[in-house]
Amino acid sequence: MSGKPKLHYFNGRGRMEPIRWLLAAAGVEFEESYLEKKEDLTKLQKDGSLLFQQVPMVEIDGMKLVQTRAIANYISTKYNLYGKDVKERALIDMYVEGMFDLNELLIMYVIQPAEKKQEHFANMMDKAENRYFPVFEKVLKDHGKDFLVGNQLSRADVQLLEVILMAEEYKPDILAKFPLLQSFKARISNIPKIKKFLQPGSQRKPLITDEELPNVMKIFQ
């Protein structure tokens, strides 16, 4: 096995996308092994690779890590994206947990049945504009620095940019009332390693289409 981390998931965003973002922000090359059918998942389950029988799973440093937050914590610690001390780490954790809550609303939208899509959409946009983004606008104002925590890039910055771009796919002007978040988005997007990840042809995944969704759902049913 090569020294590169190997990501096991389907060829889409889901709960692996924050991991791809963190590795890209750290400048770490990684490989991907895509689950294309249910048998691919069953094989990993039967050979003992999945501690809780679930993906995402990342092979890294001789380990087979599962659970998105555990994987993200390890990568963030290993590549210095987790603050300079325990207080900064606590702030990063607190902010990221909020981002995960919003991210969950965004990624679950595509699998909503047709009759619930409108209600789910309204709820996730309301939460983005009135609960989550106002918090991060205030954090940037109060902190007065280029980053959410401390004075260097952390996983909180990386994952906030990810969730902003996801929200903008559904509502392009969602940052209209948040000038500091607009500046933050431009600034973090321009960091060379992140800028590279945002270019066409990178390992960043597009929004899943309605046509692709049934095949993905069959893997996990």
Describe it for me?
With 221 residues, the chain is α+β, with helices and mostly antiparallel strands. Helix content is 56%, strand content 7%. It has 9 helices and 4 strands; from the N terminus they run E-H-E-H-E-E-H-H-H-H-H-H-H. The protein has helices spanning 17-25, 38-46, 68-78, 86-108, 114-143, 155-170, 179-189, 192-197, 213-220; strands at 6-9, 31-34, 57-60, 63-66. A 4-stranded mixed sheet has the order 2-1-3-4, covered by helices on one side. Strand 1, helix 1 and strand 2 form a beta-alpha-beta unit. It is globular.
Number of helix segments? 9
Which stretches are low in confidence, meaning pLDDT under 50 for 5 or more residues running?
none
Spatial gap, N to C terminus: 30 Å
Largest sheet: 4 strands, mixed
Topology as a string of helices (H) and strands (E): EHEHEEHHHHHHH
**What is the β-strand count?**
4
* Main sheet strand line-up: 2-1-3-4
- Backbone CA Rg: 18 Å
Query: Structural class, from secondary structure content?
Result: alpha+beta
Rounded mean pLDDT score:
95
Shape: globular
β-strand amount: 5-15%
Instruction: Report helical residue fraction.
Output: 55-70%
Features:
221 residues, alpha+beta, 4-stranded mixed β-sheet, 9 helices
